[in-house]
Structures are given as structure tokens and as C-alpha cells.
Amino acid sequence: MASLNRESTPAAANGTSPPKPHSEGFLVRGRQAVRRAWRGWRRSTGAPIAGNIAADLPDRDLALVRQQIDTCLAARGGEVSARAIAADLGRAYIGLNETGRWRFFDLLARDYKADRDALTAAAAALQAATDDATFADTQKQMRHALIPPRLRLLKQFNGLEEGVKFLVDLRADLMEITRRHGTDPEFQALNRELYELLSSWFDVGFLELRRITWEAPASLLEKLIVYEAVHEIRSWEDLKNRLDSDRRCYAFFHPSMPNEPLIFVEVALVKGMADQIQTLLDESQPAADPATADTAIFYSISNAQDGLAGVSFGDFLIKRVVSELTREFPMLKTFATLSPIPGLRAWLETAFDQGDLTLEAAQAETIGRLNGNSDPTIYLMALFEQSDWLTDDTIAEQIRPILMRLCVTYMLTTITDRMGRKRAVDSVAHFHLSNGAQIERLNWKADLSQKGRRQSAGLMVNYLYRLSDIERNHEEYKGAGKINCAGAIKNLA
Amino acid sequence: MASLNRESTPAAANGTSPPKPHSEGFLVRGRQAVRRAWRGWRRSTGAPIAGNIAADLPDRDLALVRQQIDTCLAARGGEVSARAIAADLGRAYIGLNETGRWRFFDLLARDYKADRDALTAAAAALQAATDDATFADTQKQMRHALIPPRLRLLKQFNGLEEGVKFLVDLRADLMEITRRHGTDPEFQALNRELYELLSSWFDVGFLELRRITWEAPASLLEKLIVYEAVHEIRSWEDLKNRLDSDRRCYAFFHPSMPNEPLIFVEVALVKGMADQIQTLLDESQPAADPATADTAIFYSISNAQDGLAGVSFGDFLIKRVVSELTREFPMLKTFATLSPIPGLRAWLETAFDQGDLTLEAAQAETIGRLNGNSDPTIYLMALFEQSDWLTDDTIAEQIRPILMRLCVTYMLTTITDRMGRKRAVDSVAHFHLSNGAQIERLNWKADLSQKGRRQSAGLMVNYLYRLSDIERNHEEYKGAGKINCAGAIKNLA
Amino acid sequence: MASLNRESTPAAANGTSPPKPHSEGFLVRGRQAVRRAWRGWRRSTGAPIAGNIAADLPDRDLALVRQQIDTCLAARGGEVSARAIAADLGRAYIGLNETGRWRFFDLLARDYKADRDALTAAAAALQAATDDATFADTQKQMRHALIPPRLRLLKQFNGLEEGVKFLVDLRADLMEITRRHGTDPEFQALNRELYELLSSWFDVGFLELRRITWEAPASLLEKLIVYEAVHEIRSWEDLKNRLDSDRRCYAFFHPSMPNEPLIFVEVALVKGMADQIQTLLDESQPAADPATADTAIFYSISNAQDGLAGVSFGDFLIKRVVSELTREFPMLKTFATLSPIPGLRAWLETAFDQGDLTLEAAQAETIGRLNGNSDPTIYLMALFEQSDWLTDDTIAEQIRPILMRLCVTYMLTTITDRMGRKRAVDSVAHFHLSNGAQIERLNWKADLSQKGRRQSAGLMVNYLYRLSDIERNHEEYKGAGKINCAGAIKNLA
Amino acid sequence: MASLNRESTPAAANGTSPPKPHSEGFLVRGRQAVRRAWRGWRRSTGAPIAGNIAADLPDRDLALVRQQIDTCLAARGGEVSARAIAADLGRAYIGLNETGRWRFFDLLARDYKADRDALTAAAAALQAATDDATFADTQKQMRHALIPPRLRLLKQFNGLEEGVKFLVDLRADLMEITRRHGTDPEFQALNRELYELLSSWFDVGFLELRRITWEAPASLLEKLIVYEAVHEIRSWEDLKNRLDSDRRCYAFFHPSMPNEPLIFVEVALVKGMADQIQTLLDESQPAADPATADTAIFYSISNAQDGLAGVSFGDFLIKRVVSELTREFPMLKTFATLSPIPGLRAWLETAFDQGDLTLEAAQAETIGRLNGNSDPTIYLMALFEQSDWLTDDTIAEQIRPILMRLCVTYMLTTITDRMGRKRAVDSVAHFHLSNGAQIERLNWKADLSQKGRRQSAGLMVNYLYRLSDIERNHEEYKGAGKINCAGAIKNLA
Q1: Per-residue model confidence (pLDDT) at position B10
Q2: Rounded Cα–Cα distance for residues A309 and A198 (Å)
Q3: Residue D143 located in a structural domain
């Protein structure tokens, strides 16, 4: 499932393990705020199970859970009562450990899916329908049969305080457990249903774009620090710098999770297209006057909710932000990113290994001169692990053209996905190209952090969002997998 | 479709024609605010059709609309572009007259429904699936096939300013047109799909309960005046009285329609169970001290959005409000309504006509003494049209026991609905009984307005919400159609 | 004191009796909200007097009040305790009738003024001071001696909920009582001190300018209806029209009275300088597109708080609003008023009576032709009372040049005030000329309301605020009493 | 002037140099936000001086400043124009260095004070007045004469964005410069006038009490970190701990400085009276359930604005917070502080030196046993500098009763102030006793920080606020200097 996320945004695509406090964080708060809030949903009849079941959900307790679920689904006592039972189940879930949660998901996955008989009956009716009216009726019948009991159960949570966040984190738990325990078609089906439910709830039309400033609640800013997945926020001072008068930060929010950013982007307002990330993040630099800027650089986009993996917000976010910035700063002429190239090193390694890629003779010769090593590709790969060669210009300047060309090759490489469509092999490139951007410029010594050096030998790339080309680029890429890029890039290739 | 509304709330159930400014109101604003807002969604390519098509949508313009819909569905240019096209279509729709709108719905109803071939293929695959993984996959395939193109089109509107309100009003238009032009299975299917879409969006879990006071924006209060459907708000002073310190008004709102109440309830905090509506609405009465009240009387519940007919909020609203009031006024002991009996007169007339109901001898004799008329039922029915007999105690006191008994008979009468379930014949009774209330008391000379006299000879009823009985009452009514009522009512019957 | 208000703004200057619900309104609310709020200020020792004194404050109860005041001023028990006593006194005051209030003011006026001995001692010390340090100290001593005990008492109210509004209304009561009971130097001194206190608190620097729209709370809009003093707001629909998209309404608010406008102005955005008030107020006119307007017409300015008479906000309000409008609508080129001429008829009457003004021969002849009456001025004056001559063009067109010339004469007439400064005789003219405006145009048949015809035979005037001239105009008027006006006006004169 | 602050609150009273970024901080922001905001106040005539004068304000530029001040005071062009000039002067001031500011203050202090002739004339008139009316008039005349031109100038700033904060910081600058350049009666008089102006503006009745939580803007929380003057906030995590669910933080704000706390207090909700500050500040402690707390401990009160030295908020703050807490947690029974004893060590040293204090024989003997040193007081004083003896119970337990008794002696010691009133020698004690608290308990090993050990050998004190005693305590202390304390304290003494 992680691949859903990988395909859509750079956040989870950078190859490192991002901080993962989401679900756990929720559980911690769960023990305090949510449990308190949900305790308020008292049923007028029946005993609660929360507090009375063991953390690993042994068979006896699983039976209690099943009974509670059945009562909820029977909706005896009306909808308010059903929600009270859901709150009880939610509090019970929060108290479970990993084994308990696995057993809970297993219960949902096997015993509360859509009814097979009803589905086959509906399918038969649908095939048998002759006139329009009957055909419409059978569709309605089929739509109904397709809603599994577990979905009716989970939907109850949207009416509880923090209930939507609970479901988002529940899906994150499910994906994490799937990752550890191996794939199972039943779990996959459950995950798919959760994904479709959350996709409909988190339709981008329902989201609110908010600018985040240093005036925002500390409790919200704290989450940016945790959720930032591209360039780690090292301190509150680092964060304050990213919210300075020559910066902008925007996030999408959902009305049911008003204090939880879904995705956020950090923008620097600069003169000319930025080519170095450490300069942008340097807190000691004074703020520039944003009124004099001609370029907006999107230097970080992070998905904040693991449980929303596969739900795509990034495209809309960038375009809404471009539109906001254009209104505030009519002088802005260029909208571009300064992006990592997370897959470069891994791809090169595999490509060299499998012989898909070879160095040109002149390149090999240059490296040979630097190093007596018999295999220049091994030398090249080793550079990604070292920290000093980039500052040694006698080496760096010779390596530069070689790596730049290899990187262009990588950037323009496409693969074919499960649906048979061509797409860029680099996940970040795929994200921006899908949005209609083009590859504008490679930047040497652009990210000197350890991560930057390891992933891409310090290289970064600018993707350019030119409003007049976005629709065409998008169509060409989506259709034929065409990767648009600037002339200079083409020349390098 | 109107019956959906009738079944669920008293608002549309009172037999009069409520004010219907919703859709029209929207169109009026449409010509100003919405058109302006949506003009902002500029496409980078392609010409807009809004402004270039005739109001009755002749064939030539219908072709333009079709072309625009196709472009939108093809999603060329990405999702932002798709929304821009939707905005254009929306502006075009707003400009249509009734004929134009009929033709627009006809286009959607016939040419953009779910694909029959895809559905039958999915049905076949579903039936053929053997293992769990395949079965899950075929469900996913079927879910996809069930989403008609028109739904993908209409969903685009949720991202536009006022777009959700647009869809709600669009459905109101569709139902109105259906009412006038007669039922058509294709139109019904379209309506059903819109209903299901709006049901999922307006799930009660996403709604916000807000108290409405005299501090609320005038633009919102103005809507209460328009939307009130039970006891007409005659002036701003009348409204102010209903928001006084011994009153409460609560409404549900949806995040995408923050200034549009969906349903609202008016509550009076009084001592003892209120038995007269004019007293409650008398502006000259000083406000009582709410701290001394022991009873909360729900004296008006109105659905505000015709386009959400069939989406049920009332049950949740009443229970949330009971919970709010209990927190604010722990002294409250009784929660009850003072409700109209909208169907009494019409039902009596039919029942007498068809011989389903006859007067007892003593009753007939009593009436005979008052009136030499040979048919006492005709005399009774005539009273509903007259205004003076209620103030003439020599008549009223003799008629009173007769009408009270007839009314009890009516209140306890059940019918069987399309699904074979027994339900109360009175729509308001059905609403409150479904929520778990019981019939507590009939009130004589309770509504002396013309409407009150015509519908129910001035009778009103209190439905009692006793928290400890709600679940049981709900189950007994939903299950066996059992109508719970107070002992005094039973004695009358 | 009323003259302070009269001199400064057109609101009280129009010669009619404006609605006066302020003080009374406060007392009404006082019996509910304020009394409740202030009851919360419980003293830990000592019994409250509120509730225990008679409404006309007989001697025995006056002694109780005096004792309570003394305790408050002694500030035993600390400042919080002092405020609790003030709250008690405030509640007692609210319960007084007019006689009681007169006796309360009398008590403050005579027994709680600044101490004469301390003042003369401070005066002696001040005169005796030789070195700078001593001189500074004696100033401090004098400043202290000048603060009468009653001011220390009244200042306690600023910390109570609605306490500042209480003081404002208290001063309104004081002025009203002075008006009825005749002037008294002691009452005048008390009023002067209250004026100075309120002036410092309501310094324009502390005020907040807010735009008022139809989205404002009904409880606020209701106050506009009550406070409007120039052109009566006849209904909520009339009000809504004045807040339409081609209108603007701005008010000043004080942080301690967040729901009470101090002064408000109504503006119409139009093409060309408006010449007719009924057209502006016509609810049936559709809203114009404000983006196409080139002129902002200030057609009503009303002071809302009688108790702030003499505290001047109007100048700042107009200039702040001009600045807001300029920012929102850069296309606006002209800022002008459409103002009443409230004193025209009364001035003409007196001037004719006293022989200060005579008609020219040709004018008298014209009138003679219309009317055999021997005295043309009596004929002229009678027209102000009649309603039909303005619609009879055979008369109106002959009278027009005569009244226009007389009006110009009036507009340019100056008087000398108590300070020996020249000022325009018309109060509204004085207000706008003081602000730096110039008289731009007289408008015939501009206000056809009964009030407009009676005061000024339907004439109205445009005052023009030209930003580049405001400072110069202001200085010339303030200095030499020069009345600037447009060339056309000069020609008429 | 600093002594005003020292006398009134513990913040500046703790003997250390608190962080002083206020004025400087303002200047830094001044260079950005304020300069930008004030640039908007364009005069229609006359050139601005800001940007055209040297930082040390040489004579030539001083003349420009004088000219600008004169223009402002002449108020030519109306009040809006006067404010524009003030904005220009403010921007000029912000650009000055310390010398320039000294020269600016010198100009105000000598050339813009109240007019001596007018004052002596007013004094003569006041003395000559015979009847009441004249006497009232002469008071008005005197009040007018007492307003120096510089005050009229400075008042202009209240209408500018951040203008009130500017004046507060201006006074802080003035006091700082006075501190460095020595006292001057003219500067003192200027400071006094500023103090009186700010006192009237910052009257506690105009202040707003706000609770500060982790949901507050980061920009506000950042200020708490800077302004905390009692127990340094070491990090954002430390701050978050102080805002946890078992803590409360309240601050006073002024409407004209909505983002600047004036004074704030930190409260812990605990069981029993806290006796150790490090335990309270330990971030690793889990939050207690505030519902189970019986005691509110005020463990830090800090004044935030140096420029408001002498303006007293603390008394009101504590009482308002007690009232808020009582409402939120009716179970709270005890309200007390855990306070430093900042002057203990310094006082002991002086008292021993001057022979005002001697050890009892038994005390001296005990110390002698611990240490052969010939002077036990020197040994005692040395302990304040050492860090290890407190953890060595063989020493600590013997020293404990000696230091506790000395501390009680100190706590009960009074001095006589300039006005001849008796007050506690300890500044923090004076603050709380003035508010009506009593000394409740001394705590051993209560503050083990370096500052705590140095100032008071780790001792801290609880002051108890018992609502029923506050008024009496306050009166007894204010009147006769009586220091109320618990029986256990009396026994120690």
C-alpha cells in the first residue's frame, strides 16, 4: 500500500524512514482526550466493553467485540445509540496492542465483508433487467449490496469528536500491520474499502486551504515539525525562519480535522530560481523583501497523514497556492520547485549492476585518472557515501559533468506501471510531471546534507510550473508518458 | 420524491404550500455572487459556453453543453481544469429557464448514466469469481462501474464556492420539474443518485450544531424567516421573541454551506408542558427566567433545504439539542413537543366518506341537538372552516369530547408502507414516534390560527421524549409499529 | 450641553427630536443583564444597598448612598473591593427614578467635588516654586488635587461589564436632567468633568473602525435603526438596502463597548454626484456595480451616544472611510456628501422678521405675480409647510432661483461663537467646513420628505472632500472663518 | 523609577538582571513592521524628516525635529494631519541611537513642558475665585494649563498602529537612559507625566484577562519565554509543560496592544500546597488530573513591559485568576503562591555586618561544631555560594533550623518607606501582603537552582490567599504595617 503514497508525492518517496508518530501520537492522546470525549457517549442500555477486554484481544474478548459490533449494526435503539456503541468500540480499540489490533482487523476482514449471496443475487438481477426502470432499480440494489457491514460500522465514527482522525489512523495501523505480517487479500480488500471511504470524505472540494504563519497555534506548528518529511525542521527557530516574511506555508485541512494538516507546502519568495537548499534554510540570513521577489520556490511538500496514503492532494495544493501567491504578489513571474532526486543513487546502482547502464569511455577514463580502481562505477557509487569529495574542487569539477549526465538519463527514464502507462522512474519527478510541470534545471552542490549526498550526490532539480503549459504538459505526460524538459536538459541528454 | 420529505419531517408535512424561494433565491444570487465567483475559474484553453447559450437550451446549444460535459469528463488538462469547466457549466445552468433545465436534466438522465456493458461485464465477473482475492477485485470493479459519468461531473462542484448549495438546489429543481412533468424512470434514477451523493456528503456526522441567537448575522436570521414551515414568522420582532432569553434555537450546518441552515428547531423553556401555541408566540409576553424552567418545549422543526428531501436530520437534531439543554439547564425534567396534527381533517373526511369511520350514536345525537342537519359528519367537517364556534363555549364544550376521541383514533391509526412496515398515518406522529417519543397529551384550543383550525380544529399534541424510554419506544415502533402513548390517551381511545 | 453636540455633527442638528431610547434602553437592559452581571461583584464584608433604597432616594436612603460612596473612596479592602461597591452603587442608581437621579447628581455635584483647601494650597505651592524640581513636584501635587473624589468613584465603573456604557448613559441622564431642571454651575462642573473623562477614554486613537454589513449581528443592526438621526430607517428592508453591495456603512467602536456604535456613516457608491436622497433610499432600485462607481456619497452621519455629546469623532470617521474606500475602489475620484440644510427655514424666518434680510425687487415681484399676498416673505415661509407646490412646475420653477439664492446667502453666513471665532451659521455646514470640505453644489427637489420640505424647502447640499485641499480649507476656515465653495456657488451669491 | 517596579512585583525584584529585549525588540520590529505601517500616514503637505536625520541627532537635525513637533502641536491641517506628523517623528525616533534618543528626550524635557506663566496665572485665578461657578471654571483652566505640549504630542501616537507599544517602549528607553546618565529633575518630570498618561490608559478596568494555552499563537508564546522573570523558561518543551492540562497561565492584555502580555501568572493545580519548584517544572512528570486538585499554586508572576514600571496589575490579576479558577474547578480550596525570597541573603549579610543581627549562642555553637571557623556568620554566608551542603544531610539538617529562624526574622522585618509607611523589607513579601495574603509556610530545599541557592539558600515561601481574610489583611498591612502569618511561622519567630 505504501506504493500508493510513493507514486503520488515526494514526501514518502525520499527513501528514508520518515518520523512515524502519527498513529502512536493518536493513541497517546487517545488515552486522554479521546477517551474522555467518547466516554460521554453513554448508551442507555447495555454495558460498555472498553476497559473490560485484554490488550491482545483473546478469543473470549473477541466474542465481546463481535457482539458489540452486531448490536451496533442492528441499530437497535436508533442512530444515536449506534454511535454510542461505536464510541465504546473505539475506546476498546485504542486499548489494544499490536496483536489485539491484528485480531480486530482480522475479524473485520473476514466476518464483516459484503454478503456474497446478496451480491450474486444483485448481479443476476442486474443482468436480467430489461427495461430502464428495472435496470436503474437493480443498480440501486447492487450499490446497496456492495456496502459491507464493516463500512456501516466505521462510518459511525465520523460523528464522534476526533472520529475522522481515528479512522485515518486506523487505516495507518492497518497498513503498518499488513507491512509486518505480509499481504492478505482480505486485508487488502478492507484497506481498499477504507481508502475509498476516506477518498470520498477527503475529496479535495471539501478541503480548506489555510496559510500557516508564526501566528498559528503552537500546537499546530508542532505538528509541522513532526510531519515535515523532505528537509527536517531542526528547531522552533528553524521553523520560524520558514514562516518569515519572505516565506509562505500553506496547508490543506478537512473540516472534521481542523487542527490536523493533511499536506503542506513551504515556499520561498526569491529573486531568480533558487539552486541551493541550505541557503534557503539558513536561519542567519535576513528576510528579503517579498515585494521585490520574482520567483516562488516550492522547496518542500509533505503529506502529513499516513492513513491517507493514495489520496491525492498535491496537485491541487500547488495550483491553489500559485493562485494565492499570484494574487498577493502580482510581480511573481516564475513558479518552480527545488526538489530532491530521491531515487538517483539506488537506480544507478541497480542499473550498473544489471548492465542496463554503462559509462562512456571518456567518463570511465576521467574516473580512472582520479582513482586507480579497476571499476569506475564502484568508485562513483562510493562517492555517495563520502562527505569530503564535493568540497575538493579538483575532484568535484571532474565528476560533475559525469554525474550530471547520469542524472539527466535517470530523470528521463520511464517505466511502465501496472495499468500499462509509461511514467518517470523517479517518484518526485512523476508527481510534478503529472501535475503539468517540466524539468527545468539540475543543480550541482544543491543539497549538502547527509541525506542529500547519499540519495543524489547533492544534486537537486527545479521543476517549472508554467501556467500556459500545464494543461498540455499534463496531457502529454498522462497520455504518452512524454517528459517535458528545458532545452538545457535535452542538450545534456 | 416529495413523499420522502413528508415521511421524515413535519416541515413539509403540514399540508400547506410552504414558501419556495430556495432554488429561485439561489438563482437570483447566482446572477450576482456565484456568477462572479465562478467566473474566476478560468480555463487556460477552450471557450466558455456560459453567456453563449439560449435560456431554453435549443438543440444547437444542447450540443455545446454535451461537448463541454465530455471535455470535463475526459479530464484533459488535469483536475483543476475539470473544475473550471464545471464552473462554466454551472453558470450556464443558472442562466436556463424551466424548459432549458428540463432539457439539461434529460441530457444527464439519458446520456450520462452508468454504462450498461460495463455493468453487465462486472456482474458476470462477480458471479464468476471463485477465490476471495478475485471476489474482492470484482467488487471494486463493480463499484467503479456503478459510478455514472454524470456523478463524476456533478462531484466537481463541491470544490466551487457555493458549489454544494448549487447541487442541493439543482436537486430541488429536478424534483420540482419531475412534479410538473410527470414521473420518468430515468429522471427518478438521476434523482436517486443525487440523493445518495447528498446523503453521503450530508451524513449527520459531518454536521455542526449551532445555537442561533439575536446576535447571529441578519443574513442568517433572514433565512429562518423564509424557511420556517410550521408557524410562520411574521416579522423581525416575532423572530426576536423566538430568540429571547427563555427560548433556544438550534440548527445543523454543513461545512460547505456555512451560512445555510439545514434544519432548525425552536424551543421554549417553560414551567409545565405548554398547551397553547399562540401564547408561546405572543411577543408582548415578558421573557421568563430560564433558570426556573422545568420543561423544554420543541414547538417548531423546519427543514430548510428542499434539495435534501429524504436526508434525515431531525432525530439527531432533537437528541443533540436535548443534550445541550441538559448541560445548560440541569433543572430541566421534561422534553416534549407542541406539535400540529396536519392530517386530521383530511383523514376524517376521507374516512367518513369511505365509511371507514362512523360516529357513535351518542356523538351523532349530540351533534344533532346542535344542528338539525341530517348528516352530523358534514356538520363536523364544516366546523374546520369556521372561526367562531371555538369561542362559543355552548357549542365548543359539547364538540370537544367528540373531536378529542376522533383525534385519538386518528393518532393511533397505522398504515402499511411500500416496504410492508406499519407506521402512523399522521406524518408528524410518524416522525416523533420513529425518534422514540410517545404521544403524551392532546390539547384543546391549542392553535387558533386559521391553519390550525382548518387542519385540526385547533387541536395540537405533545410528544414526550423520555430519555429512558427512547430506545425501547424506537424499537417497538420500528419493529411492530407499536404506537406508545400516555395512559390518558389510551383511556380516550 | 446639547449645543456641544449640535455644533459638531449633523445628527443632532436637524432640528427634530431624534429617537431617545439610549438611556432608557440601558435602564431596561439594566434591570436584566447588568444587574445580573453586577450582582456577581460580591463584597466579602458589608451589606449591599441596591434593592434596599426607594426610587426617589429620600434622605434616609441618600445617607446610605453617601456612606457607600465614602467606603468606596476610602478603598478599604483593596481595589477589587472598591469595584464591588461601585457595582452596588450602579445597581442602586439603575433603580432610581428621575427625582432619585436628580438627588444622586446633586449629591455628587456638591459633596464630592475637588477639595478647595487642597487646591488653594497647591496653587500657593505652585506659585512659590523656584527651582525646576520643585516646580515639577508642585504640578504633580496640583494634578492630584484637581481629581475630585467623584471622578475616582466614577472611574471604578470602567472595570465592570457594560460599565463604560453605564457612565456614558449616566452623563446623558445628567444632561437631560439639567435640560429640564435648569442650569446650575455645580451640575455644569460635574458634567464638564464627565466630559473630560469620557473624552480621554474615547480618544479617537482607541477607537476601532468597522464596516457594518448585512452579515452583522441583528442586535447591532437593530441599533442602527434606533440611532439613525438624519434619514429615518423605516424597516429592516430599508436597512438591508443601505447595506447592499453598492453601499458601505462604517462605524467607530470602543473596546469597552464592543456592541455599541459611537458614530456611523452611510455611503453610496454612484456615478456622478448624487442630487436626490429619495432615489438613494429607494429599495426597489437594483444595486449598481460598485466597480463602475466614480463617486462616494456620504448621505448620513449619526452620533449614536447622547452621553458623548461634545466628543468629536466625525472628522476622523470621514477621513478613515475615505481612506478605506480608496483602497477598496481605486477608481473613486470624488468624495462628497449629500447633506440636509437643517437651519435654513428657521434662519430665514428670523432674518426676515428682524429685517436682516430683504427680498430683491425682482424676487418680490415674481412672488407677487404668483400670489396677491401683500407680504412675499410670508408667502415664501408658508411654502415650507405645504407639500404640493414643488410638484407644480409653474410655481416651482419661478420660486427655484429665489430660494436657491436665499439658501446660498444662508450657507455663506457666519456668526461669532463664544470664543470669538467666526463659524458658519448652519451646524452641518460648520461640521463639514471644519473638516476641510467645501460647499460644492445646491440641489433642488433633493429631499421631498416632510422633514426635508419643512427645514429647507427640499433643498440639499453637496460638500466636497478634495484630499489635496482639505488641510488648506481646514486652516482657512479655522483661522479666518473663510467658507470655501465652488465657483457656481459664488456665482449664485 | 526602577524602584517603582521593584516595589510592586516580584518580577524585577529577584535581584538578577532579567532579559531586556523589550525596547530593542521593538526597534528591530520597528525597522520592519512599524516603519512600513507608519509610512502609510502620508501628509498632504510638508516633507517627512524620517530618513533624513543622523542617528545621534546633531544640532541641525534637532532643529528639524523641533520644527516638526511645532507643526504637529499647531495642528494645522486638522487632527489627521497631526497624526501623520507624529508617525514621521516616531519613525525618526526609531532610527536614533542612544545619544540621539538622549538628545530627543532632553528636547522634550526642557522645551515642551507646561507653560510656567499659564500655570501661575491659573493658580492666581484659582485662589481668587469666590463663587462656585468661577471656582469650577478656574479648575478647568488649571487642568488645561497642566497639560504640557509634549503630552499632546505623545498622545497622537495612540492612533497609530503599534503606537501605544511605541510609547511604552519610549518610557522604557527614557528610564534606561536616566539610569545610565544620572537623575535629572526635568527628565523625572517627563517620566512622571508619561507614567501618569500610561496609568490612565492602562487602567485595569480596560484590560482583558486571557488564558494562554498551547493553542495560542507561537508569536505570543515566544514572548512568554522572553518575558518570564522568575523561573527561566528553558525551551519550548519547558513552556509546553507549563501549559499542560494541570496548569493554567493567564495574562492581562490591553486592546491597543493585543499581542503583548502586560503581566502573566503561571499556576499549578495540585494536591496539597506545593513545596518544591523543581518538581513543578519537571517536564518528565505526567500531567495530573486537574479535577482532583484541591490547591492552586501561583508559582510565577512576571511583569512583561518595562515601560509600565509602577503601573500595578498584579493584585487584580491574582484576584481575577482566583475567580476564574473557582468557577472552572469548584473543588479548589486553597490558593497560595510558591515564591522566591529574593532579598534574604543580601539582607542577612548587611545585618550581620552592621551588627543588627546576631546568632544565638546555641546557633553559633552548632555551626562551630560543623566548622572550626572563628566566625559562624561568615560560614553561613558562604553556604549560599556552595552547591553541595544541601545534599549532605549531616550538615543540612543542623543548618536547617538556624536558617529557617533567620528567614522568619527576615520575613517579618519591616522598613519605613519615603511616605512614612511601614512595609516588609522583602519586595515579594510586600507585594503579596499588600494584596491581602498572609505568610503561610517556609519550605526547605524548595528551589535548588543556582539562583535559588544564592538568594535564599534554597528556601521558598508560600503566601496564602484566603478569600475571607484578604480585605482585613490588606487593611491591617496598609494601615499599620502588620504582617499576618500562620501560627507555625509565629512559633518559629
Answers
A1: 36
A2: 10
A3: no
Please check whether residues A313 and A434 belong to one and the same domain: no
Indicate if C196 and C210 belong to the same structural domain.
no
Does ipTM top 0.95? no
| Per-residue model confidence (pLDDT) at position A56 | 94
Q: Are residues D213 and D306 in the same domain?
A: yes
Separation between Cα atoms, residue C139 and residue C145, nearest integer Å: 10
Looking at residue D478, the DSSP 8-state letter turns out to be H
Last residue of a domain, one of D337, D361, D388: D337
Are B352 and B485 members of one domain? yes
Catalytic position from the list B8, B432, B434, B456: B432
| Closest by Cβ to D206, choosing from C139, C140, C158 | C158
Q: Kindly list the residues from chain C whose CB atom is less than 8 angstroms away from the CB atom of residue D256.
A: 205-206
Rounded distance between C-alpha atoms, residue D438 and residue A408, angstroms: 77
Nearest residue of D to residue A215, measured between CA atoms: D217
B323 shares a domain with B254: yes
CATH assignment of the domain containing D154: 1.20.140
Q: Pinpoint the alpha helices (H) of C182-244.
A: 185-201, 218-227, 236-242
User: What's the CATH number where C281 sits?
Assistant: 3.40.630.180
Whether the per-residue pLDDT at B477 is higher than 80: the answer is yes
Spatial separation of the C-alpha atoms in residues D92 and D78, rounded to whole Å: 22
For residue B82, give the nearest of B167, B153, B158, B165 by alpha carbon: B153
At A442, which helix (H) or strand (E)? strand A438-443
**Residue A152 above 80 pLDDT?**
yes
Within C325-373, strands assigned E span: 334-337
- Whether residue C139 and residue D146 make contact (CB cut-off 8 A), yes or no, is yes
Q: Is the pLDDT of residue D267 over 90?
A: yes
CATH of the domain at D427: 3.40.630.150
- Report the candidate in A150, A164, A171, A159 with the shortest Cα–Cα distance to residue A308: A171
Residue D398 sits in the same domain as residue D261: no
C218 part of a folded domain: yes
* Touching status, chains A and C (3+ beta-carbon pairs under 8 Å): no
Can you name the residues that pair with D337 across neighbouring β-strands?
Answer: D298
State how far the Cα of D203 lies from the Cα of C156, in Å rounded to an integer.
10
Of A305, A337, A369, which residue sits at a domain end?
A337
Return left, alpha or beta for B425; rule: phi > 0 is left, psi -120 to 50 is alpha, else beta.
alpha
Residue D438 φ/ψ region, left for φ over 0, alpha for ψ in the -120 to 50 degree band, beta for the rest:
beta
Residues D167 and D48 in one domain: yes
Q: Does C140 touch chain D (CB under 8 A)?
A: yes
Q: Domain containing D192: what range?
A: 39-113+148-160+162-201
CA distance linking residue A311 with residue A317, whole number of Å: 13
Q: Which of B224, B197, B175 is nearest to B4 (CA)?
A: B175
Phi and psi at A486, nearest 5°, equal: -70, 160
Q: How far is residue A292's CA from residue A199's CA, in Å, rounded to a whole number? A: 40
- Split into its structural domains, chain B has a count of 3
Based on the fold, state whether residues A392 and A457 are members of the same structural domain: yes
Q: Kindly tell me the burial class for residue B324, based on how many C-beta atoms sit within 10 Å of its own C-beta (0-12, 13-18, 19 or more).
A: middle
Q: Which of D302, D339, D427, D456 is catalytic?
A: D339
pLDDT tens by residue, B150-193: 999 999 999 888 899 999 999 999 999 988 888 789 999 999 99
User: Domain for residue B136, yes or no?
Assistant: no
The 10s digit of each residue's pLDDT in A35-59 is 667 776 665 557 788 888 999 999 9
Cα(B440)–Cα(B274) distance, rounded to whole angstroms? 12
What residues of chain C lie within 8 A of the CB of B215, using their CB?
Answer: 217-219
Segment A345-397, tens digit of pLDDT? 999 999 999 989 989 888 988 888 887 766 888 888 888 988 788 888 888 99
pLDDT per residue as tens digits for the range D131-161: 888 999 999 999 999 999 999 999 999 988 8
Q: What is the mean pLDDT of residues B309-322?
A: 89
